[in-house]
Amino acid sequence: MHKISSFFITISFLLVSLGVQSQSDNVVHAKAIATLINDSSYALKISLQIDKGWHVYGENPDGINAPLIKSKLESAKLLLDPKYSIAPIKQSDVLFTQALVFTSDFEVNQNLQITGFQPDSLKLMVVLNVAKADQFYALELPVTVALSKGTKVAGFNILLPASATTAPNDACGSAAVTTSNSSGWEVFLLGFLGGLIALITPCVFPMIPVTVSFFTKRSKTKKQGIVNGLLYGLSIFLVYVLASVPFHIVGNVQPEIFNSISTNPWLNIIFFIIFIVFSISFFGFFEISLPSGIANKADSKSGLGSIGGIFFMAITLAIVSFSCTGPILGTLLVGSLQGGAWALTQGMAGFGVALALPFTLFAIFPQWLQSLPKSGGWLDTVKKILAFLELALAFKFLSNADLVEHWGLLKREVFLGIWAVISIGLALYLLGILLLPHDVKGAKIAVTRKVLALGAFVFAGFLLVGIAPQNAKYINFLSGFPPPTHYSLFQHEKGKHGLQANVMNDYAQAVILSKQQNKPILIDFTGWACVNCRKMEENVWTDPAVMSYIQNNFILVSLYVDDKAMLPIDKRFTYTSKSGQAKDINSVGDLWATFQAENFSQVTQPLYVVMSPDEKLLSNPVGYTPNASEYLAWLQCSANKNK
Questions:
Q1: Which residue has the higher pLDDT, 397 or 20?
Q2: Each residue of 248-274: pLDDT tens digit?
Q3: What is the mean pLDDT of residues 393-403?
Q4: Alpha carbons 571 and 585: distance in angstroms, whole number
Q5: Residue 157: CB atoms within 10 Å
Q6: 162-184: pLDDT as tens digits
Q7: Strand partners, 68
């Protein structure tokens, strides 16, 4: 059996740290000046000051590059190679024996050409490698340079007057709106369900009797056994809850950081690859585990004093069971991100409670161990069923990236077809027709497997029937997982929900239309990768009464907060938030996410806001409202406030 040392959990934590600036940045300081050469070209001079004791690497044969200048502006082109005001010197180096380095302040010079519109300033990045003794950092130093021939970008008026975004005292809806993708208890229960699934995997289930027996034999009295069991259960719970703490630290960077992470196309592609690897592992082709050294270190600590030893036993359980719990935790991680750090903590708490419960109960009532089913082939079957589920989830992540970037790879019909094939494959496996590693040809198929196979065939049938646009209603129970109905091979008009022909994605245009028709504006803060947004569009907005009322009484504008399409260069700007944070507004999603956060203090989707033609809030915004009658009542009350 092959073993792969997995770094998947580490990746998750590293990815969310993208918004946290390294404390090592201050060892080199950069200033930039741009001198005009002609109407479209500038001579750049980047002055670098190096702190005492540090050195910057020049070009070295070990793959260490000299300082480089980079620009994210697609119309800006750096000409020729950079030139340095002084030559690097060769000196002994702890990491690379002999290396070419800059030990004193110097300048990097390079010419820059900009085609088309020129902003009045340009953000650059100086990429360099620094070291001091055995400390080594790869740095990216941001620097802004003024362009004398550039034009100042006016930008979009993101912040509405406070009086305009304050709802009247008798406003409809609740003043304290929670728009997270799931309520706290729902996320907790989803995590709890994930923990229950983890319990019946081959990595966890056999450990229950072994661990409990260890406690009962080690404890001198029944009371001590109960106390140790409770401490062990509490430790398991704490291990998973504490794993969410870094996300709270990251969450303080920007209010919409979790939405940015969860809808990042490249992150979703990484999760797609990870889940494909997980599913192949679950199929039995190889085994995934964390490096054995980590498990050995944790296990060695389990012999410490009572409380400390028990806690390290809980850490050991989390590590050695990772190959089975990792995919489930990964699903929980990605599914909770849009709800923020607390949603993730609630989900992890639910997972920890479910995982800790049997260990605690069996430690208190060890006689119950006799009623546990014996480990056997059924555990392998459970693991392979999970493999098919992981494979299906993998394509959901790929779909998220495809939707956000509008690649058109996984249109609704293609996605449903893939899921149907996976479901049929699951059915064939359960019937013993499709053999996977460690399966025995001709083995007796239990009744339970036959029933599950029938369910998989029925599910595949629903998916195949639902591929036809006119049959979409038959798979409404899946709303949010497949791409939206308008992202289809049969419809090519971007931005339409099928709700009405004049759905738009431009707030300014919606205001103009609202004044012309004297109708209030219904702002739909949504996202291409938002599950509950699809549920609202496909289950609530399609209700005849709701659909008719929106069409006749509102100007509907859908603002996608995760749209990665870049704004025209002359529309990009830097916005300073009410809290004093500077943020670059470069994409459509940047614009609408900031517009939502600054004016309505909400960063999750969906969020529905009703504004009058003169841009005043008519009612309290509402979030995910799956009850069509309740949502219609809010719409009616909001529209009446405009009269």
A1: 397
A2: 665 444 545 556 666 678 877 887 887
A3: 86
A4: 9
A5: 8
A6: 888 888 877 787 655 444 444 55
A7: 127
Find out if CATH 3.40.30.10 is the number for domain 507-640: yes
The pTM for the full model equals: 0.69
310 within 8 A of 231, measured Cβ to Cβ? yes
Q: Which two tokens stand for residue 472?
A: 């979409």
Tokens of 276: 């494909």
Contact yes or no for 286/5 (Cβ under 8 A)? no
Looking at the chain, the domain(s) classified CATH 2.60.40.1250 span 18-146
Pairwise CA distance, residues 485 & 263, whole Å: 19
Q: d(Cα 571, Cα 167) in Å, to the nearest integer?
A: 30
The answer to whether 56 and 84 have CB atoms below 8 angstroms apart is no
The residues that bridge with 561 in the sheet, in sequence order, are none
**DSSP labels, 543-604:** SHHHHHHHHHH-EEEEEETT--PBPPGGG-EEEE-TTS-EEEE-BHHHHHHHHHHHHHS--S
Give the model's confidence band at 18: pLDDT under 50 very low, under 70 low, under 90 confident, else very high.
Answer: very low
CATH 2.30.22.10 holds for 18-146: no
Residues of the chain with CATH 3.40.30.10: 507-640
- Let me know: does 626 contact 535? Beta carbons within 8 Å: yes
* Amino acid 194: pLDDT: 76
Give the residue among 604, 602, 607, 603 at the shortest CA–CA distance from 623. Answer: 607
- What phi, psi does 433 have (nearest 5°)? -80, -40
Q: Which residue has the tokens 């005001």?
A: 85
Amino acid at 28: V
- pLDDT-derived band at 499 (thresholds 50, 70, 90) equals very low
Phi-psi region of 178 (alpha: psi -120 to 50; beta: other; left: phi over 0): beta
Tokens of 342: 């607390």
DSSP class of residue 113 equals: E
Phi, psi of 626, rounded to the nearest 5 degrees: -70, -15
